[in-house]
Amino acid sequence: ERTAGTDKLPLDRLKRNAEEMVTALRETIWALKQKQVSLTGISDRMKSHVNRIAPDFPQVKMQVREEAVIEYSVSPASAIHLMAIIQEALTNALRHSGCSTVEIRFSGKKNFRVTVTDDGSGFENHLKEGGYGLQNMKQRAVESGFLLDISTTEKGTVVTVGNADTLS
Predict the structure, then answer these.
(1) pLDDT tens string 38-70
(2) Inter-residue contact 105 to 65 (CB < 8 Å)
(3) Chain-wide mean pLDDT for the chain?
(4) 38 strand-pairing partners
(5) Per-residue pLDDT for 126 more than 50?
(6) Which residues contact 59 (CB under 8 A, 6 or more apart)?
(7) Which residues, in sequence order, are CB contacts of 161 under 8 Å at separation 6+?
(8) Nearest CA to 35 among 78, 67, 3, 68?
(9) 151 has which bridge partners?
């Protein structure tokens, strides 16, 4: 920091990347310590994540909502995948959509659905297939046995992940 002088941007990026890696490692350790991870636990982690990143996006209203009693639990590996899918959807909305609001909604009882909805500009369908983040989301859903749906228009994007009973 002392030798960076006035150009602190590269150092700030390095710090942010290091903080993100430490946070991801903490989330992984948290999930792996559990026998089963409840959707309520994942929702609580997402609330903490949103609170942590909100100062970097003051122009965007972000919220995490829970509907109904969420009794659904997943394996630690599936929890890690689910959190990564949600975080990727949130990151895409914040960085690429130009949105003013993003909502993460957890719902279900014995089955579950998580939706990440933004009011941004959406994106073209051919881009849906091309990005690494979107490909990673799809692969994580497949590995966990979840279904993933991504719908987008000029009025925003909705990413939905859940089990078979909730997406049909």
Answers:
(1) 888 899 999 999 998 999 899 999 999 998 666
(2) yes
(3) 82
(4) 73
(5) no
(6) 100
(7) 82, 85, 86, 113, 114, 141, 146, 147, 148, 149
(8) 78
(9) 158
pTM of the full predicted structure? Answer: 0.79
Q: Which residue has the tokens 């690429």?
A: 96
The residue length of the chain stands at 168
C-alpha span between 159 and 168 (Å, rounded): 14
**In contact, 48 and 30? CB cutoff 8 Å:** no
Distance set, CA 89 to CA 69, 109, 134 (Å):
23, 23, 8
Residue 77 CB burial class (10 angstroms; 0-12, 13-18, ≥19): middle
Pairing of strands 113-118, 147-153: unpaired
Higher pLDDT, 25 or 52: 52
What is the dihedral sign for C-alpha 52, 56, 61, 62? negative
Stretch 130-149: mean pLDDT: 87
